[in-house]
Amino acid sequence: MSLYHSDTDKKTKLFEKVIKFGPLLSILGYFSGIVYFCLLPHEALIHGTYISENALLPGLVSSDIFSTDSIFNYYHFLKDAYETNGGKSFNSELINDIFANQLKIESYTQDFNLTHPFWSSENENIRSGKNVYAFGRAQRADGTESIVISAPIYLTGKKNKKIPNLFGISQLFILANLAKNRPYWAKDLIFVATDMEHVGIQAWINSYFETHSDSIMAESLKTRGGSIQAALNLEFSDINTNKLEIKLEGPNGKLPNLDLFNTIIRICKSMQFECSLESEKSFNNDFSYYHNRPPVDHVSGLFNTVNMMFKQATGVPNSLNGYFLNHRIEALTISGTKTSSNSGRQQKQNVLKITRIVESTLRSVNNLLERFHQSFFFYLLPSSHYYISIGMYMPAFGLILLPVLIKILTIWFTIFSKKNTESKGKESSLLVLDLLKCVVVKLMVSFTFGIILYFGTPFFLMFGKVFNLSAKDSLMNCYLAMMANIFVTPFIFKTRLSSNGNKTEAENINKLIILLSLTIFVGTISVLNFSLAFFIAIFYSPVSILAIQRVNNKILKTFKIALMVLACPLVYFSLIYIKYHDKFYDFVLASKISDIWTYEMVNLFLVPIWSTLWITAFN
Amino acid sequence: MSTEPQIKFSNEESKANIRYKIAQNTLNIIDLTKSTIKSSESNELFKNSFKKFIQNEQLIESTGDKLQKIHIIGSQLNFQKFPRRSIPSSTKMSKYRSAGFIGALALGALIRLCLINNQSLRQWLQNRVEISTPLTSWHRVLEGIYLKNSLNSSSYEGDLVHEIPMMINLYHFLIQLLSAKHIIYFFILIDCLNSVLVYTISYKIIQHTCIMENFNKTNGKYARLFESKEKREDFLLSEKNFRPLFWSLLAMACYLFNPLNLACCMSQTTVLIHHFILLLWLNFLLNGKVFMSYFFLAIHANITVYSLVLIVPSIGVIRQKKILKRKHIKSELNLASKHLATFVLLAALVFMFNFYLENFNTRFIDCTYFFILKVRDLVPNMGLFWYFLTEMFDHFITFFIYVFQLNAFLYSVPLTLRLRDEPMVNLLVQIGLLYVFKSYPNIGETGLYTAFLPCVAYLFPLMRNVLVYTCMLIAGGVLAPIMFYLWLGSGGGNANFYFAITLVYSVGQIFLLVDVFYACLKREFIKLNGSDVPLGTDGKPASFTLE
């Protein structure tokens, strides 16, 4: 025994323990992580939602909307306009006209252009639209704060059909009337009717905050309201609605403050109107909705949670409310659906209730004394009445990542353990040189792939033009080419080590760096977009361990390679592309137009990590 | 030694034998050093030291403790007899060196030149609080120049500029020379020069460490190391087993390709110029040009007040250089006070020059020195001050500022005393501590001193928690902008998010520095006491702890 190494007996013992129990702990950790996650919506672990911000006082005000007459007036007026001229007269000008001339409030239009970020065929290169925005100034307030109520003029229905948002727009008028006549508003109300769905709302928000965008050119706004505290987005494809669905998910996994969501749910309950998350599943329909709080349903809760996580993981906003979240404005979308046909009387009642719900929500937000800051910003919703907070779901993520952490520790110990340092007997500078040669080259090659994918997409599309391919098809070709490149790399490129080099050492360091970069990547993403990180971790935790493991059995080897191919992000891109042609292309476009980084992050970091794993697996 | 009594050898034969062996050994070592060291100065140094060595041996012959000394020499000779492993010849190595040097420099410059084309990245970096601190922000410098020249008022109007007048004038001159648009090329040039300086300084540091160790070895200081049971031939450093060429190249690469330094270069922070001055200090110090080195340190101390404590480790270096040259040091206190006085005089001169540049207006004193010491600007950065001071009640602030600032100045003297035989490690640790405890730290400063870690790579096997703080530093670096965004961008988080990360980052740095310190002490212990684990009072093997 000597003092030449840093290891103490304690450390050696720890090392032995890690080596001995590591594999067991890894497997245990991974599966217990998954099991724990599945148990999260269970009665014992779940918490009921509550309103944290005292000032909101949901449902305490008496409504100022007494009849449906004016709503139906506006609705029919708009409907007539929509039906007469093949839908062409139901446009921004008409809405602007009503705001300015009938309601007599400040109203303006805003022109904007969308330039295609990549090359595409001429006719779809530039599209333009027109937004309307109107201000209901608070009469007795100083106009330092405001609330936005937005509604897209047209919604996209099934099969890309354009549906007019007639009821949503008519509600804007009703609320504008209230804003004009009532003295109790403490915040300006800003009404925004947007053209071209998300492009329009983005153009408006960009101009409002004067942020620059390469692809959306928008006219600057003529006037503004106070700082925006909250935004509601109304989407009603039909006036015949008996259920509200609330959409939350914003860009890059952002969510609005849970208080806002709770307020709406609370108000709906007090109005006795059915309200839920978007496509919320509930398998036991026995309970009466108007119970104080419905009982926990574990299975449907889990289903809803995973559903929400899928939507969050893509990073694409679920609805137009998402674009407000980018600017720190709490926002959600209220959309109406029809679950059963209603009689005329019932329909009238529903319309009144919906309008009152929106009004009541606005007046709750109107009560706010400070920005939304209480309650949760990081949560998952198994149902509209229960939530899972970050403190509950993060341990599951940690447990799933445990195998990678244990592996890192094991590799670290094997490299720098006592025995190893004693038997080294080689000059340190040459050793470092070997390691650098072996490790850096591998990483450089892998990260080149990522950089090519990240920066090269427009060039690939340009290249496709030469072969008369459409932009969409050349995207697919780009993936295929990259995949072929990466798959072949380990066979072309064999890391050359100096003949007397320490091969295992270099390999170990290589493995260590891959696992560390994977952990850092996933850990970082988990802070921003938990769902995306969670799904990546579920996949990559076992795959990465398996990839760096030396396997001699032939069957196991093929299994390993098959699993690795399945984990390749590009394979997924191609598969999704084949299934959802246009949607995926829009997803790629969204990363350029709306700063949604899911696609780019995966390209820039996950693809290189995967390709390093792939190269290592064949070494 | 001269006071020891003379005793004659009875056995003339063994005496002759030993003399012969010593001579052979010495010649051997001189040959080796000749082939590896190009610098004439160090060659001279070696010759000198070996001359002294031989004289010493003659003294040894005459000492009373004859047997033990013979034993030492014998073990040293045994030590030399270990078979040498094949290593590339020095010419091949120097070829590698020049190729590696030019290649790394060219690649570093190329990366920087490519990156400056990305305007959005540059703008983003220029606005990052971690890089553009009040002391180093380029925007502030531009503002200062504008105030001075276009509005004809003081640069320090509005408490926006915190650089000393000298530097503001320098930047103004540069902008006139290059135009504001092209000034980035100057920054790239400075960054490349910094990397070259890092290279030369690391080379000097390693060389010095090797020479020192050889010197002590030949003086028999490490006798007990050769008596220990388990012998590690490459434990003591020489230029054979710890190549200055390679490690200094690695240090240069560490500087050039460190993302922190890249970010600093992109964002045009003036910290690069501060680094340049600091590196000039180190360079002159290690080259023995004491006055010049103090001059640059005086400028740096005027820019960032904290670096004035670096005079203490500089004196440590000078002391050891004197020992190496076998100059007798009469009184260490005398030496220290003499150097201290020189430095203070120089610093005062630099201050007076600035005073003169400001037309003897005292305003700048409050905007530079007191701004740093009083920590008025609490915009978040990677340091430890802002959070505590924002959270604190006003009437406690003065007290806690004293406590916090004391941290930066406190460790200098004790560390120098403890590490008096390892002045190079002392330099590294002290620069690091300074950057951790200063009021407006910049991530580029971490990038600077971590670049010197390859110089102490020999401590690596003795360090304990490398994985822990490596992960902490990486996590801190990656998560800082993200937490900042969660707090002030998306609004989901709060100040604690960012504070937690800055804490992780700072604690990681402190762990790193403490571990370097610990490893250095342990190495010193082994060198002096041998590698056998000593037994404690209870008869069990003693453990080595840092207390």
Keywords:
heterodimer, A: 619 residues, alpha/beta, Aminopeptidase, 3 domains, nine-stranded mixed sheet, three-stranded antiparallel sheet, 19 helices, 55% helix, globular, B: 547 residues, 0% strand
Please tell me about this protein's structure:
- The complex is a heterodimer of chains A (619) and B (547).
- Chain A is an alpha/beta fold and 619 residues long.
- Chain A has three domains: 1-39 and 391-425; 54-384, Aminopeptidase (3-Layer(aba) Sandwich), CATH 3.40.630; 426-617, no CATH class.
- Helices cover 55% and strands 13% of the residues of chain A.
- Chain A has helices spanning 9-39, 69-84, 92-102, 166-181, 197-209, 258-270, 298-314, 322-325, 344-366, 390-416, 418-422, 428-466, 471-492, 503-528, 530-548, 554-567, 569-579, 581-593, 598-617, and strands at 47-48, 106-115, 126-136, 145-152, 154-156, 162-164, 188-194, 216-218, 227-236, 243-247, 275-277, 330-337, 379-383, 386-389.
- In chain A, strand 5 and strand 6 form a beta hairpin.
- Chain A is globular, with a radius of gyration of 28 Å.
- Chain B folds into two domains: 12-81, no CATH class; 93-529, no CATH class.
- The longest helix of chain B is centred in the middle third of the chain and has 54 residues, at 165-218.
- Chain B is globular and about 75 Å long.
- Mean pLDDT of chain B is 83; it is low at 1-10, 35-40 and 58-89.
- Chain A binds chain B through residues 1-6, 8, 11, 254, 325-326, 328, 371, 373, 377-378, 408-409, 412, 416, 421, 426-430, 432-433, 516, 520, 523-524, 527-528, and chain B through 85, 87, 228-230, 232, 234-235, 241-243, 246-247, 250, 457-458, 461-464, 466-467, 471, 474-475, 478-479, 482-483, 486, 489-493, 519, 522, 525-526, 531-533, 541, 543-544.
